[in-house]
């Protein structure tokens, strides 16, 4: 049953990925160029990104210049910095390398045991960095301590998991895949929440820094004319509002540290208020996949389907392309 569920999920991912690629503004892109993810370190000193290039690329946060290339086999799907330590959580798929934690001081990667052979896209630290959650493509949620020791594994009863976000104060996780699941680490309770009436793959989720609500982004379905939705939910999982302004899937979404602005990566860079009003739109030649704010909330880094990366102002104006 588990292998059948995974096969169905992987086929659905392949179908929507190919469909999305056919929708891109440029037709000369290659899937092995995709930069899936970009992450700005908490101290602002470093930007790291990864994707299908079999390496992690590190840039100076100040000069925006390439400082290091670290080989890593497979597709890097997600990167999350530890809030206080020199540790980087890495989601990986299509690789013999397990998702793991890179120690920036030693350069060593600790593989996370028990994660699906297919890999994982959903990964993230809790608010104090004591726990690391990995949601894999078998729909198993794995909880580790910050040394990589397995603490708990829980079946989320979905086809697979594509994104997760910890509550900013509680050990409560919002996960997405087929639908939304709220998982309380303390009590072990699981709450499933339908995301919409149509069957679409969800991709991204982010708690607001206040912890009062969270936002999700999905794929939509171009063939069936279901637009991608950005949806706002209260802490209990009741929908507050939604918008269908984007033509492209919401690959990743990220709140500014002060909670005043939400940045979304889709067919364009969009900056929203916390109430869900659109403020700025940054035109992109290619669909955006990775996104993150600088620690001072003044700049945004994005990566895209054609392997390009840019730093933008908070008004969604390009400042500089990152060259590697």
Describe the 3D structure.
- It is a single chain.
- The protein is mainly beta and 324 residues long.
- The protein has a single domain (2-321), classed as YVTN repeat-like/Quinoprotein amine dehydrogenase (Methylamine Dehydrogenase, Chain H, 7 Propeller).
- The protein has one helix at 2-22; strands at 37-40, 46-50, 55-60, 66-71, 75-81, 87-93, 100-103, 109-111, 120-125, 131-136, 140-145, 150-155, 161-166, 172-177, 180-184, 190-193, 202-207, 213-218, 230-234, 239-243, 252-255, 261-265, 268-273, 278-283, 288-293, 299-304, 309-313, 318-321.
- A 4-stranded antiparallel β-sheet has the order 1-2-3-4, with no helix packed on it. A 4-stranded antiparallel β-sheet has the order 5-6-7-8, with no helix packed on it.
- The protein is globular and about 45 Å long.
- The chain starts with a helix and ends with a strand.
Q: Summary?
A:
This protein is mainly beta and 324 residues long. The protein contains one helix and 28 strands. The chain has one domain (2-321): 7 Propeller (Methylamine Dehydrogenase, Chain H), CATH 2.130.10.
Shape: globular
- Summarize the helix and strand pattern as letters: HEEEEEEEEEEEEEEEEEEEEEEEEEEEE
Helix proportion range: under 10%
Q: Within the CATH hierarchy, at the fold level, what is the topology?
A: Methylamine Dehydrogenase, Chain H
Number of separate structural domains: 1
Biggest pleated-sheet summary? 4 strands, antiparallel
The order of strands across the largest sheet is 1-2-3-4
Number of DSSP helical runs: 1
């Amino acid at each position: 049953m588990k292998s059948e569920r995974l096969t169905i999920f992987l086929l659905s991912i392949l179908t929507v990925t190919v469909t999305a690629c056919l929708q891109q503004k440029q037709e000369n892109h290659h899937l092995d160029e995709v930069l899936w993810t970009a992450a700005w370190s908490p101290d602002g000193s470093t930007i790291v990104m990864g994707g299908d290039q079999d390496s992690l690329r590190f840039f100076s946060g100040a000069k925006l210049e390439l400082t290091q290339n670290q080989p890593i086999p497979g597709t890097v799907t997600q990167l999350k910095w530890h809030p206080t330590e020199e540790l980087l959580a890495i989601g990986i798929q299509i690789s013999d390398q397990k998702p793991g934690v890179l120690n920036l001081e030693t350069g060593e990667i600790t593989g996370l045991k028990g994660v699906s052979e297919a890999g994982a896209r959903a990964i993230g630290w809790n608010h104090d960095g004591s726990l690391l959650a990995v949601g894999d493509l078998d729909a198993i949620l794995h909880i580790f301590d910050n040394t990589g020791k397995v603490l708990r594994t829980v079946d989320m009863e979905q086809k697979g998991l594509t994104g997760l976000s910890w509550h900013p104060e509680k050990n409560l996780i919002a996960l997405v895949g087929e639908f939304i699941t709220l998982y309380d680490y303390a009590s072990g309770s699981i709450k499933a929440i339908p995301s919409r009436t149509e069957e679409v793959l969800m991709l991204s989720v982010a708690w607001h820094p206040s912890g009062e609500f969270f936002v999700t982004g999905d794929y939509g379905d171009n063939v069936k004319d279901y637009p991608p939705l950005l949806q706002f939910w209260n802490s209990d999982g009741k929908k507050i509002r939604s918008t269908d302004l984007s033509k492209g899937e919401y690959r990743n979404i990220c709140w500014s540290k002060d909670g005043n602005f939400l940045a979304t990566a889709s067919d364009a860079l969009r900056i929203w208020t916390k109430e869900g009003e659109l403020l700025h739109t940054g035109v992109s030649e290619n669909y955006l996949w990775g996104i993150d704010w600088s620690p001072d909330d003044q700049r945004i880094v994005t990566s895209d389907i054609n392997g390009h990366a840019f730093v933008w102002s908070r008004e969604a104006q390009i400042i500089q392309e990152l060259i590697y």
